[in-house]
Write a structure and sequence with these properties.
Elements: E1 10-12, E2 15-22, E3 27-34, E4 40-47, E5 66-67, E6 71-75, E7 81-85, E8 90-94, E9 110-112, E10 115-120, E11 127-132, E12 138-141, E13 153-157, E14 160-166, E15 170-175, E16 181-186, E17 199-201, E18 204-209, E19 214-221, E20 224-231, E21 242-244, E22 247-252, E23 262-267, E24 273-277
Antiparallel strand pairs: 1-2, 2-3, 3-4, 5-6, 6-7, 7-8, 9-10, 10-11, 11-12, 13-14, 14-15, 15-16, 17-18, 18-19, 19-20, 21-22, 22-23, 23-24
């Protein structure tokens, strides 16, 4: 790739979508690659000349794209959020305001039913925002929480569609229909770095953060969060663990610092360590 980046590729059919900055030209872009050959099918970018703070290891375009197989949506921080067709036609764009933080931004949009749900921040007025995925019009905006860098994820509880997101203050459960905050569990990490995304299985919600904060599993039931366990067997810093059945695989340790970063397998349901490979 032309430049370094922190986003993840997203696959839809025979196409791969990936964000990519062009620092010299002050552009932030989206690449569409052929899945079989790796050739670039099309590229779209936007120019943003204003200054925007970020950490030296957090390149612009750190958000991953989101697609539902009909459209692809990408967030460019202060440069806005854009929606394209799969052949690269711009469908809509929104200016959600300026992001301002010494570490930059990192949250990725989530497509849920007819909504694009995105945490736009950190910065003045930052919040979780739901946009109509077809038009970009705002459907709801959550109450403000302190800045964080993880992404929202969706799940069901009974007949209700819910959103889980980890903010700097802690784990928040919201109504996906109107953005109402339903439950909150305090979870703070050193240096205000809650940077990961909750992992949900049925009504169980797993979170893990760095600086040896550890991990925990909660159950959302009857409108409340109940803690099932908490330990320090896995502390994922910037990258999420990968769930496979009742197992979670992830890096235990801070990815940008010296020191051990073990690869660990724990049980989702109990938090017990299954094995650990030393760095």
């Amino acid at each position: 790739m032309p430049e370094a980046g922190n986003s993840s590729p997203v696959i839809s059919g025979d196409r791969i979508f990936l964000t990519q900055p062009n620092t010299e030209k002050k552009r932030r872009g989206l690449l569409c690659l052929d899945r079989e050959s790796g050739k670039t099918l099309w590229e779209k970018s936007v120019e943003y000349e204003a200054e925007e703070r970020t950490h030296r290891t957090n390149h612009f375009c750190s958000s991953s794209p989101a697609t539902d197989g009909e459209r692809v949506i990408v967030a460019y921080g202060s440069a806005g959020i854009y929606c394209y067709s799969l052949d690269g036609r711009e469908l809509w764009r929104r200016d959600l305001g300026t992001i301002d933080h010494v570490w930059g931004y990192g949250s990725s949009p989530l497509i849920h039913e007819d909504l694009c749900i995105h945490y736009h921040g950190p910065g003045k007025g930052s919040a979780l925002i739901a946009l109509d995925k077809k038009t970009g019009k705002t459907k709801w905006k959550s109450k403000p929480y302190r800045a964080a860098y993880g992404s929202p994820t969706s799940f069901k509880s009974g007949k209700s569609d819910l959103i889980a997101i980890l903010k700097t203050d802690g784990l928040v459960i919201l109504n996906a229909t109107n953005g109402e905050s339903l439950a909150f569990e305090k979870w703070e990490t050193s240096y205000r770095t809650n940077s990961t995304t909750p992992i949900v299985q049925d009504d169980k919600i797993f979170i893990s953060t760095g600086y040896k904060r550890g991990c925990a599993l909660f159950q959302f039931k009857n409108g409340k969060l109940a803690k099932l366990y908490e330990n320090r067997n896995l502390s994922t810093h910037m990258n999420n663990a990968i769930p496979v059945g009742d197992f979670l695989y992830g890096f235990d340790g801070n990815v940008h610092m010296a020191g051990p970063k073990d690869f660990v397998c724990i049980r989702f349901s109990t938090g017990e360590t299954q094995w650990r490979t030393k760095d």
